[in-house]
Amino acid sequence: MKTPTALVHELIDAIGEAAVVWHDEDLLVYEYDGTIDRGNPDVIALPANTEDVASLIKIANKYDAPVTPRGAGTGLSGGALAAKGGVIIGMNRMRRILNIDVENKTALVQPGVVNLDLGAEAERYELAYAPDPSSQRACTIGGNIAENAGGPHTLAWGTTTNHVLALELVTADGEVQWIGHDTRDEPGYDLVGCVVGSEGTVGIVTQALVRLVPRPSAVRTMLAIYDSVRQASNAVSAVVASGIVPAALEMIDKMTIAAVEPVLNTGFPLDAEAVLLVEVDGPQSQVDAEGARVEGILNRFEPREVRSATDPIEREQLWAGRKGAIGALGQIMPNYYLLDGVVPRTKLPDVLDAVYEIAERYRLPVANMFHAGDGNLHPCLLFDEREPGATERVLDAGGEIMRVCVDAGGAITGEHGVGLEKRDYLPWIFSEADMDAMKALRAAFGPTENFNPCKIFPKGHGCGEAGHQHAQHQIAKFGPKAFV
Amino acid sequence: MASADIGAAGFAALFDDLETDSARLSRYTIDGLLPKAAATVHSLAEVARIQSIATDHDLAVIPIGGRTMLGLGMPPRRYDLALDLAGMNQIVDYEPNDFTITAQAGMTLADLQRHLATNGQFLPLDHPRFERATLGGICAVGRGGLRRNAFGGPRDWLIGMRMIKADGTPITGGGRVVKNVSGYDLPKLFAGSLGTLGVIVELTFKLRPQPASDQIVALNAPTFEAALAAAQSAAKAAPFLNGCVALSSEAAANAGALGASILHDQPALLLRANGLESAASEVLAQGLQAARAAGLDGPERTTSAIVETWQAVADLELQTSRQHIRLRLGVPPAQLIRAQQILSRQLPDASSWIAAADSGLLFLEVAAIDADVIKSLRNELGPLQGRLTVETAQPELKQAVNIWGPSGPGARLMHNIKEQFDPQGILNPGRFIDGI
Amino acid sequence: MRGLDNGRIEWSPRVQQHFDQCLQCRACETACPSKVPYGRLMEATRAEAFTQNKWPRRQRIIWRLVMRGLFPYPRRMRLAGYGLKLYQMTGIQSLVRKSGLLRRLSPKLADIDALSPVADKPFYANREAAQIAPTQPLRARARLITGCMMPLAYPDTHRATVRVFARNGVAVDAPESQLCCGALHAHGGDIEAARNLARQNIDALTPQTSDLPDAILINAAGCGSHLKEYGHLLRNDASYAERATAFAARVRDVHEYLVELGFAPPRGRIERTVTYQDSCHLSHAQNIRSAPRDVLRSIPGLTLEEMRKPDKCCGSAGIYSVVQSDISKRVLAEKMEDVLSTNAEQVCTANPGCMLQLDAGIARFDDERRMMPRSTHAIELLDESYKLGDQEQFD
Questions:
Q1: What is the reported pTM?
Q2: What is the spatial distance between Cα C74 and Cα C87, in angstroms, rounded to a whole number?
Q3: If I label A201, which of A422, B84, B205, C269 is the partner at 20 to 30 A Cα–Cα?
């Protein structure tokens, strides 16, 4: 790497001084994404258009500087951290919704568009953008594409990958191309399917053509209150098994309620052990009938109460309780470590028991709020990083929980990505050959070694061991053997 | 030893249980080419071993499932070995309450559906000839069917896959959970790759509960154009319809011969909806109302033979009249009528039209077509974002027109991927887009 | 802030710039489920920098001149107002604007010029308020905070406020001795000046703790949110803490009070489509969103068409539009795109800063001259409707 100063000057020449951030005090806010790991970038560049992105990548390549794309930094897996320093390309200035094609139900957007803003725009035309991560007030479509983001309503509609038709992509060599088509599954390799969920390791998306879906004419949101987590999770399994596909099926436990209720006034009782949020949508008659059936099932598991939101405001309030849950944890402890394990749905009750057992053994408060219908857990281990030894304890417990998910036939991440944080656990579910095939795919996108380096795959040249002793420790403890 | 030098005896020395009798090999004919040998495999290990040998001897391998779509693609550049996977037809893992299933690639879609039906579940994929078409083949072709607007294609239901790489290495992608971003999405890469990257041997799908009610209704129309216009209105008025198809009279008659009697051999609009009884009726009524407003005033015809009727229409994709050429157009739904006008103007003799209005899909048949006409059609359809593929045709025409059409800006990346996964080019050589 | 706190970074002009570039719109407080009191944190951080004299010299001098020397003095403000009026009436302003001279000399001054209100006849608080008699029966007594800018820039909003409440049986007075509320000082970090102003206002508006008005009314959102913080501001002032809390408890935004009171439905028709811009300090800081809309929707003939993101800041943000004019202009450009994509003929908001900013926005972006050049305050529309209704009754 030549001198960073020369790199900074060249970046400034390319996109202007106001769009390049490189003073120490300015870089501070880019070192962090809400996880435990940190990364220290040398410079942040904020492109305004596709050409900017292409020239930034080319300049970075000239200086052998690593490139890390970043959206809103809400991924919670370290994916947006500059693990090896270098240039962070922040996509936040490219935040225009370029077109809504009502007839064909598509939207053409720039990657910095905030998820909720696209949703609001689609709503004007009686349409919706289905993936709705809980961070949707902040997270961007580009970030959603990188992580193949989900959200409560992906139970019925599928995740981001089911909603992206075409992408304008700047690959790691700085070349710009469109991939995908205006229609689904046309001939050629599914490049869009490869890029969605690739965690920003093969290129930067600069435009996306996404599908919009019709808005259902009726919605019913139910709240079921239980006195044990086991009852609630049995109810989840029963709803899934019943053959009804709810629009959403979420669980929130006592610790989460304690954080959420006082500030958001959602109406979750503070002494309940778990509440379920279940939503059905569709034509009114379907909502009435399915709603009644779901209510019947929920009632079989001895709930304290099952009630339905009767108006949009009440419904929004219930959802505010779910979607604001992670943010509200700050009231209990200053730090949290969110896990993103996913297990076959029938394993959910047992895995939840194990999660509570592990948290207790490590003396860590744990808050659970998650996509129960998908089997996607989000245990949040709460701690204070200033307390000596706390971070290590959290990482140990986190590794053990991930192992439980893998042993149950699950995976280490459902929607947040492997990122920096879980890369050492990837061998738990994939063999060397599997990972080699993935790396082969990555190599097809050009010189990607320095493109968002140290993410997804274990090891990696120059990634160092910082922040990864814990994983090594875990592997020593639970065995390095690949799961498959 | 290069493939050209291996005779029947040579093959027999390499593999046990090999078919080399040319009479029996004829079932694997692709564009008039016979393989030198065929291997019927029953396990993942056998596939791995064959690929490893094929790599060592540079043998061109074409993986084969139910042999329903062998006509799709460019003529193979070379063809040494047909790898018949139809014998790998077992369920590997099925926990109904997880709503996921893992099956071997040679299982037919119909068998899978029968298995799932016992638990009130199904895999929402339409595919022609589903009694014969295999899961591996359907995913290798990777296209959604007539209901792709509502259900998407194989890629949208695949959550995990096992493949054997060209060199014989077994690999896995995805998993058994419905939501997963652990590592790159290799199942998406392999779905729709037409067997050019590896041999798909095992697949895991997420499933849907069977709807409480599935309903179908047909309305006859004076012309195909009228049926198409009505279909478009219906799709717009009732976005939750899951099938909305217009057929010309020949298509209706052909489908009738296969069992779709409610079409009465006349141009027709066929609508399908499901969900709870009342909801499906409500959606269907919305669609019908729009179709009536668009001028269709005939009687509504319904049937209880829903799957059979629908499948009869889906099967038309593979029921091209002898020597005829079938074309397929994918286009954003709102442009469908304009695209159809372009096609019928340039191809006045085209027949057997089928259009999925909500999905932007159009199939048609012509007795003969000039390469120049295809070129000019592609030029005219391009601005509408339409993609025209030639589905079945004589090898000479295929060579002349490039059945897949222009490869587009992603071609460079696709070649890179092929190079990474099959550097020797032994899997399905030359059949896919842009010469891959 | 944490970096400063734990010593990872030092206060520097660059750090200051980051803090200065914050609009303090407090949309983040609406968004934050952990209820981090960002507004208070920000003010405390700025105060820390201000008291420790860490500001650049030039900025400090201007601050002392304008914020300490001008805003707190109603007479000086009026004088400045007359000066502005002279500048405009003599035609010098239009000449200057046409020539572009000012932009060449000092872009900043040109920005200020573009934002300057059309100087009107100032509102002489007590004199005018006393002339408007409330309808009987008398339901409440209220005291109006006149503020530093409003009497000059939007005296009619005050007049309308007094009339509207009188119409609803509320006697409104407006003691002459009150001063600028100090919101701008607190936002900027000049906490001492803010406290002084708060103490003087408490003396002026609530001289006796035994005889508090039913409501202390404010029609400027920025001031309102600050006035409601008087208790927090003076919490360590032994002699004022209690009075400040009592004072803050009585502060009501005019819309809030109208709805609380149950205002008489207006009858005069105003055939107009308007769109409503949530002032940040009303929506995010005071959580008042429906009351202004209720007021607007009560007016016969009036159509309220919501713009995209009505609660996104317009970029005015107190003195931000002057201090950070570049960012402010960019924020405004986005806002105007949303405003102009509605069919509204007029934009309505709840804060003088927003009104000034939106007026500048209309002048700059409404190329088709589709909208009324001046934005308005909901209370003025309500007043107009009352007036029209009453006239009809006489006719």
A1: 0.90
A2: 20
A3: B205
